[in-house]
Write a structure and sequence with these properties.
Layout lengths: L16 E3 L2 E4 L1 H8 L3 H10 L6 E5 L2 E7 L5 H21 L1 H24 L17 H12 L3 H22 L4 H12 L3 H11 L7 H4 L15 H11 L7 H15 L6 H9 L3 H9 L1 H6 L16 E8 L4 E4 L5 E4 L2 E7 L4 E8 L4 H15 L5 E4 L8 H4 L18 H4 L3 E4 L16 H7 L26 E2 H16 L13 H8 L10 H7 L2 E5 L8 E3 L2 E3 L13 E5 L8 E5 L2 E6 L10 H32 L1 E2 L5 E2 L37 H17 L4
Parallel strand pairs: 5-10, 6-12, 10-11
Antiparallel strand pairs: 1-2, 2-4, 3-4, 5-8, 6-7, 8-9, 13-16, 14-15, 16-17, 17-18, 19-20
Helix pairs in contact: 1-2, 3-4, 3-6, 3-7, 6-7, 10-11, 18-19, 22-23
């Protein structure tokens, strides 16, 4: 480039390139070091002011590369200061990485010294190590202290490290001591004595220990005050109680016993420092208990995307923080806090259905499940249940092991969930995090119970959270609570969710998106009807085979066929005893039995109907008995002389035993004339005619 023509602007850009011992810098980097514009640096390059200048092709054009050694000494010092700042940041983040960088810098310094000696330059004086390096144990203690030190201490240590690294780089670059001090004062505002004190802290120590050594107020291992071991153990044991006693009364009590036990106890501050130095887990365990200790372990994170819609449902009960008023049929008024039992699809967090009652009973849970199955038109493959007694009742989970019933007995009633083929899983007792539905209940107290129209009826979730305006006389009608709950459940299902695999979508959106590509088990009408029925194991009456349920008698003709000594599963509607009951033999349905209503003493029509029904029952049973007798005779045909003949082959089945010794007998009289033989009848044909005659007699009995 000649003349005043401006060079290509692409030459301004580039990165530092190291070649040999001196790095090569771009035009922009040199301009920043000199405090000039890139155009000025380009002009200097065109004039040949920088020895060793080269060009390279990069970023679509030619770029200058300028040797650092060709720049003025002040620019070189500034470059080394900036490098020191970057290296200090690296060391603070990763001491091991900086150790490797420092070793590389020391190797370069040795090469520079050899080059200076070969060029005849003055040999630099090497300062001997006057301080022994720290041992491995001391180094670990030093770093442990530094990592637990306050942020202000660490920040000041990083600033001091930056100063010392700049001092080292300037020294390796051949700068004179006076020039180094001037550069450090101009850059960091430190005096010469400060630089000297910082150098004394790290003298003779490896570079990977400089950062903690340059931290303020670190004096190494100091002597500890005398403290009798028995006294320390006594104070430590009495302080580590879940009643959380204060330290001073314990130390005062120990001092009272010190003279008798020859204990030496330091000041209260020293004792407190010893207590503070104990591991955090020990202090949490002794002062707060097992649950607090378990909370120190990070909770498990579940990947919800691995689940399909309606693969896993979760159920739980929640007591509303609101007093409501129920009005009975007889006009009696009851006041209390309603219980809400809800079912949620875990993948989509969609509240499928719920039921409200006064207690968390098995009936309330099954009604909530029925509503969820009806609303979703699906039943789950698996379900995660709370460990309460209501969920573990035999009505719901009979035949399934749980925390209350570890063995499944043969006489256990198969629960609704077992009959439906749903795998039941139990949540960890006393651990709300095990149930994903727990966070979903937050909208009930905030958006339902704290509504303005419920003012005065809201009671808080614990005694000390009860508002001053609360009065049980201000209890709201249960119908008003149900209306508000329905509105908020609808809004919750359509509100954006921030949970795992939700991506800001609402439960309704996730359900709508994933449902078309999911295989869903749809409940039948019989399964939904099963949710309405309670179940009990009942033995039929020994006299007439009737079943007694809720002090009502149920009977049908098929009851007479059952074994009176065997207990059968009876499913019934507890809300309507007039409905027929369903009889099951285990899980196999047998028949339905209607209720046998009572009749008055003067009700002749009822008595006549009862007599007619009994006559029909007796007649039908007699006909069945005759038919059974005919079938028995058909299986075995017996002749008049007592010989039993097989109807298929005609073989005599009950032949008399033959004698073992036989004697020949000769007849003295003449044999009689042999009568002419008639036609021979096959025994099978004879049996067929006999059975046919019996059927005719049964159809037209003789009068």
């Amino acid at each position: 480039m000649k003349g005043n023509k401006s060079p290509n602007t692409d030459i301004n850009k580039g990165a530092t390139v190291t070649e040999g011992e001196s790095p090569r810098l771009s035009v922009d980097e040199v301009a920043e070091l000199l405090g000039a514009t890139p155009r000025t640096v380009q002009r200097y390059c065109a004039q040949g002011k920088y020895p060793g200048l080269t060009k390279t092709n990069a970023n679509g054009g030619e770029q200058y590369r300028i040797l650092l050694s060709s720049l003025p000494e002040t620019a070189q010092h500034k470059y080394h200061l900036e490098q020191a700042r970057a290296d200090a940041a690296k060391m603070a983040e990763n001491p091991d990485q900086f150790r490797a960088l420092n070793d590389e810098a020391e190797a370069l310094a040795r090469e520079q010294a050899l080059a200076d000696a070969a060029a005849g330059k003055r040999k630099r004086k090497v300062q001997p190590l006057v301080i022994e390096p720290l041992s491995q144990e001391q180094a670990e203690a030093l770093w442990d202290w530094f990592q637990r030190s306050p942020a202000g201490v660490q920040r000041e240590a990083k600033e001091n490290l930056e100063i010392m690294l700049a001092h080292q780089l300037l020294q390796q670059a051949g700068a004179r001591p006076g020039a180094i001090v001037r550069e450090l004062r101009a850059k960091y505002g430190v005096s010469e004595p400060t630089v000297w004190r910082l150098r004394e802290r790290i003298k003779g120590q490896p570079s990977h220990l400089w950062l903690p050594l340059l931290a303020p107020k670190w004096k190494g291992r100091t002597a500890m005050a005398e403290f009798t071991e028995d006294a320390w153990l006594w104070i430590k044991e009495h302080w580590g109680q879940q009643s959380k006693p204060k330290l001073k009364p314990i130390v005062d009590h120990a001092r009272q016993m010190a003279s008798a036990k020859s204990w030496v106890i330091p000041s209260i501050d020293t004792v407190r420092d010893r207590i503070d130095a104990q591991p955090r887990w020990w202090k949490v365990y002794r002062r707060e208990g097992d649950k607090a200790l378990a909370a120190l372990y990070p909770a498990m994170e579940r990947d919800y995307s691995t689940l399909a819609v309606h693969e896993l449902w979760c159920a739980d009960g929640h007591k509303a923080d609101l007093f409501c008023r129920w009005v009975e049929v007889d006009g009696k008024v009851t006041v209390g806090r309603p219980i809400v039992v809800a079912w949620m699809d875990i993948r989509s967090r969609y509240f499928l259905g719920y039921a409200v009652g006064r207690v968390e009973s098995a009936d309330l849970i099954r009604l909530a499940f029925k509503k969820a199955a009806e609303n979703a038109h699906a039943i789950p493959w698996h379900m995660l249940l709370d460990n309460g007694r209501g969920f573990a009742s035999k009505l719901l989970t009979g035949g399934i092991p749980n925390r209350y019933r570890f063995k499944v007995k043969d006489e256990d009633i198969p629960g609704i969930f077992k009959v439906m083929g749903i795998d039941v899983h139990w949540a960890t007792p006393g651990h709300g995090q095990a149930k994903p539905i727990e966070p979903g209940w937050r909208f009930v107290p905030e958006r339902v119970c704290k509504r303005a129209e419920f003012q005065g009826a809201y009671c808080g979730n614990k005694p000390d959270a009860k508002p001053e305006e609360f009065d049980s006389a201000k209890a709201v009608p249960i119908e008003q609570f149900l209306t508000a709950l329905a509105e908020e459940v609808y809004a919750h299902n359509r509100r954006a969710h921030r949970g795992d695999s939700m991506h800001g979508r609402s439960p309704y959106q996730v359900m709508e998106e994933l449902l078309p590509q999911t295989r869903v088990r749809q409940p039948t009408a019989a399964q939904l009807r099963l949710c309405l029925l309670a179940a009990e194991a009942v033995k039929p009456d020994k006299k007439d085979g009737a079943f007694w349920v809720l002090n009502n008698r149920y009977w049908t003709e098929k009851c007479a066929d059952l074994d009176a000594g065997v207990a059968y599963i009876v499913r019934f509607d507890p809300e309507d005893a007039s409905q027929p009951i369903s009889i099951y033999d285990g899980e196999a349905f047998l028949f339905d039995a209607p209720i046998v209503s009572k009749s008055g003493f003067r009700n002749q029509e009822a008595a006549k109907e009862h007599a007619r029904s009994r006559s029909r029952f007796k007649k039908s049973r007699k006909e069945q008995a005759k038919a059974m007798e005919g079938m028995d005779r058909a299986e075995r045909w017996t002749t008049e002389d007592g010989v039993t003949v097989d109807p298929e082959t005609g073989e005599i089945l009950n032949k008399p035993p033959l004698p073992k010794v036989a004697e020949l007998v000769r007849l003295q009289q003449k044999p009689a004339a042999v009568a002419e033989e008639g036609p021979t009848i096959n025994p099978g044909e004879l049996m067929r005619r006999a059975v046919e005659q019996q059927r005719k007699n049964a159809t037209n009995p003789p009068r």
